[in-house]
Design the sequence.
């Protein structure tokens, strides 16, 4: 429908302009601007535009997904028969070049930088740690990608009350 400017009162033009700007403001951003990995079966697939470190993290997590949960796993040796929460998060960060040695869940409470990051976020408490990489949660509990006995992926959020939010330094926000 085409509307001639001269036939509309000023109020109507103002309203139309406001609606147009509101649509632009709420329209979804292009997919290339959103860090959203996807699950292909039980494997995560990184967005093509993800930073190299994010792609390395996803590759590393895919490598150990569904290893058995093992308390202390991943702390004595990077390549372990099983991983606990902090061992699996440490492994992923190590493979991307962010950690030289594994941390406990409590150790992640002060690691990296405070607050949220667009690509990678770590939620840590003294008892548990998990991370979200490009929109997918990497965790040892509340897993939805099939096998629920060890580290894996989930598209669902989980309660974060009592956790500190951290992120690696050096990944563009």
Sequence:
């Amino acid at each position: 429908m085409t509307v001639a400017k001269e036939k509309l009162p000023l109020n109507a033009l103002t309203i139309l302009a406001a609606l147009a700007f509101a649509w632009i403001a709420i329209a979804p951003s292009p997919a290339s601007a959103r860090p959203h990995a996807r699950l292909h079966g039980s494997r995560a697939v990184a967005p093509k535009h993800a930073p190299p470190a994010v792609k390395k993290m996803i590759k590393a997590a895919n490598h150990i997904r569904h290893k058995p949960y093992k308390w202390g796993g991943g702390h004595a040796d990077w390549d372990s028969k099983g991983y606990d929460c902090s061992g699996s998060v440490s492994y992923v960060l190590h493979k991307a070049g962010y950690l030289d040695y594994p941390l406990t869940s409590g150790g992640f409470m002060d690691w990296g930088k405070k607050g949220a990051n667009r690509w990678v976020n770590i939620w840590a408490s003294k008892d548990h740690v998990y991370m979200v990489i490009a929109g997918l949660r990497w965790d040892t509990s509340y897993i939805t990608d099939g096998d629920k006995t060890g580290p894996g992926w989930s598209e669902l959020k989980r309660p974060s009350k009592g956790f500190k939010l951290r992120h690696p330094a050096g990944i563009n926000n």
Notes: The two ends are 41 Å apart (CA to CA). Strands lie at 38-40, 43-45, 113-114, 120-124, 129-133, 136-139, 152-154, 164-167. The first strand starts at residue 38 and ends at 40. Residues 1-5, 12-33 have pLDDT under 50 and may be disordered.
